[in-house]
Design a protein that fits this description.
The structure is a homodimer.
Chain A lengths: L4 H4 L5 E4 L9 H14 L6 H5 L6 H11 L6 H18 L9 H10 L4 E4 L4 H11 L7 E2 L12 H9 L7 E5 L2 H9 L3 E5 L6 H6 L4 E3 L2 H5 L12
Parallel strand pairs in A: 1-2, 1-4, 2-3, 4-5, 5-6
Helix pairs in contact in A: 2-5, 4-5
């Protein structure tokens, strides 16, 4: 008996991409920018602890750091930190490059008729820069921190992205490099694909619920069949 | 029956420390220095792939990177890369700090009568800078790349360090942040303690054979009893 495919198969998944460490090689510039911002307000924190928080929104990042510090930070300093980070990051932006295969992966999805969008914890100021770097067509939505109430690890960014491209988030693959992406994906009931290109370890990503882990966008591109993409749908 | 303790117990272990990412917060400065050096010779490589190789000697690092690149590098460029990295790293050195608890850990070992030494894949030029930063007494040996034939993941650095302080390497704890430290420790038949402060994940360190994993030197200091140190021997 042949089952009706419309009853059985959800069809090709849509793809919801994180930006930093997933499509562009910018995680270390963020690390540097946070370190410089913290030094300006007199906070010393080990660099690895900064790295582990990249991918959270600036606000959550600052709260998470505050938890690690021996002294209580005043509200004014906390607020200033996020702004300083944005300024310092923009200064480092010239050295940011697309990750290998990122442009090709996005173009291939478009060619295969697969819907996709980008959802980032960063502000809209970065997103425009990244759109140029990745040659993202104007009609592709890029959801930024300021468009949702809560950033990752809350699911709002991915839920909004799915809504904007008219897909069911439960039939979407979230592609991200950080534990925060994967946690947000699970809360959105999407499947999550982890990329090592943000500097997290494979095991961390698997333990955070990754359905599959690849090196970088180029590696995902050659394994698209593993995540449900059929050529030229 | 009470067994003679000299037959049964190897006594307090000695400690052989890696330097970068283990005692000083310098891994990201190394990442930057490699990226800058590679750009100068026209090589673009994702930053996470650089990070994963930190802790190898400059020579091995360059060979490992060469394997990842699509084009074959000529011998002259390869040789120049190591030198450029040293130059760029020294420029970033001003921002290097001791990791939390590093000075206190080393001082506590000395107080408890535990022998220790430092063994680094870096050149002697860095080691002097780190000695000042960590307030390492002059009588403590610091083994550097130029003092051994093969750097990590070969065991020579740790074997030489153990020899210089007159201890059996098989009764030593190697403390390091990278997979290369842990692999070198196992080849030397030492036990390895992993620290997360270099940015590797806990699971990677455990899978590379860590006997125990701590956050940073401060965390190891409060758990010294777990790795065989008895107060004031």
């Amino acid at each position: 008996m042949v089952l009706s495919s419309s009853d059985e198969s959800p069809g090709q998944p849509a793809f919801l991409f994180d930006l930093d460490g997933t499509l562009i090689d910018s995680v270390y510039q963020h690390v540097l920018a946070w370190r410089e911002a913290m030094q300006e307000v007199g906070i010393g924190l080990s660099v690895w602890k900064i790295h582990r928080r990249i991918g959270m929104s600036g606000g959550l990042f600052v709260s998470a750091l505050a938890r690690e510090l021996p002294d209580v930070l005043d509200a004014e300093t906390l607020a200033r930190l996020s702004d300083l980070h944005v300024e310092r990051f923009i200064e480092h932006y010239d050295s940011v490059q697309p990750l290998p295969g990122a442009r090709e992966l996005l173009a291939a999805l478009t060619d295969h008729g697969v819907k996709w969008a980008i959802a980032t914890s960063g502000p809209v100021r970065y997103a425009g820069l990244a759109r140029d770097l990745l040659e993202v067509p104007e009609e592709i939505p890029m959801i930024t921190r300021d468009q949702v109430r809560y950033a990752k690890p809350d699911p709002d960014l991915f839920l909004t992205a799915a809504h904007r491209i008219g897909v069911d988030v439960r039939n979407s693959m979230v592609v991200g490099d950080s534990v925060w992406d994967l946690l947000a994906a699970r809360r959105a009931r999407a499947l999550a694909v982890g990329l090592l290109s943000g500097g997290y370890g494979r095991e961390e990503l698997l333990q955070s619920g990754a359905y599959r882990v690849y090196d970088d966008p180029a590696d995902l591109l050659v394994h698209l069949d593993e995540v449900g993409v059929r050529p030229s749908a």
